[in-house]
Amino acid sequence: MAGPWWRKCPRLTTGCTATNILENLWHLKGRPVSSSASLLSRASCIPTPETRPPTPAQINMKAGNFLIRHQSRLLLPTLQSCCCRATHSDTKPKDPFTLAQKDLTSLYDDIKKELFVSKVELKSLCEYYFDGKGKAIRPMIVVLMARALNIHSNRAGDLLPGQRAIAMISEMIHTASLVHDDVIDGSDKRRGKRTINEVWGEKKAILAGDFILSAASMALARIGNITVVKVLSQVIEDLVRGEFMQLGSKENENERFKHYLEKTFKKTASLIANSCKAVSILVNSDPEVHEIAYQYGKNVGIAFQLVDDVLDFTSGASQLGKPTAADLKLGLATGPVLFACQQFPELHAMIMRRFASKGDVDRAWQYVLQSNGVQQTNYLAQHYCKEAIRQISRLRPSPERDALIRLTEMVLTRDK
User: Fold this and answer.
1) For labelling, which of 6, 180, 231, 343 has a CA lying 20 to 30 Å from the CA of 12?
2) Cβ within 8 Å of residue 132, ≥6 positions away
3) Does the predicted TM-score (pTM) go above 0.90?
4) Residues 6+ away with beta carbon under 8 Å from 260
5) Domain that holds residue 314
6) pLDDT value at 102 more than 80
7) Can you give the CATH number for the domain in which 225 is found?
8) Which residue from 173, 279, 190, 192 is spatially nearest to 236, judged by alpha carbons?
9) Is 216:172 a contact under the CB 8 Å cutoff?
């Protein structure tokens, strides 16, 4: 069996540079850039000076330790050569939630209008999660991106009707996916209250999720742009493919991490990436601008999920609104577990049996906490956020653009 990828790069050479290794692992286009000083200082994954290696020869080590301990060597040369726009204006960026609040005030009321149905029980099912208590992260990103793109395209910052509809549709697709996920996972808690499947049963929950998706599709059709329809239809396909990927696992440890990141994109980041791309299509015909919007959404989405996977090990149920170690109990090996495998090979067998044997969940939990898997996953999330900053910084300066930059910091430092 071929050895892991990091064993093929025992030292930095012209044919196998640190940047190449990063690109192989994260499959990113372009290079990361530095964000604000506060982003770098507040991120918990920055290594202390004593953890940095004195010589490049120590690169011959396993992937997880390599990523953390060589952070400065990997990023600094790239940072120095980056020539994108300044990421911040002189004024302090506004809070993203505050800046988007006006556009999101009627979000849930508008969604309930789309879900109008005469049958009382179905109406209650469909409106159950649209109670205004969700974070509304996705529509917030879409609204800020739309305004930033409108200003970049020499228009007024106000939202176009189609852009406002996309913000609403993104939340509807996300919520429908949560309803279906809860059925698949057998979850009994969501956002601090009982799940739809727990209250009404699995069959009605599935139908409610389907109905929300159908209402979102109708709203999407009314936008009247076939390219936007194609882009957002891709999200639904990705959600299904991502769920199927989550049901399986890879025996080969090299394939396992790639499988995890691809699943993370399909289940979480695709919706944000394609929603951002969709609002760009409505205001600008330049494919490069579409790609900027898409790449920002993709990288922020993956970082968001990586941090979420970390919180499953570091936050209590009261903060998350769901039980801790939920992923392990579902048989899922997320970033912290996969990184911990480098220090505790015993985890490989547990991953393959999906932590199904007695005591697996508790032992895996302890292994992760004893390893640096959490720190390495945090560092990986930071890398994705830096790439998101690099992309969005290519747009013309605006309060909304700077708010999207600040959002990457909030993604890294959130605790719920």
Assistant:
1) 343
2) 108
3) no
4) 333, 334, 335, 338
5) 94-409
6) yes
7) 1.10.600.10
8) 173
9) yes
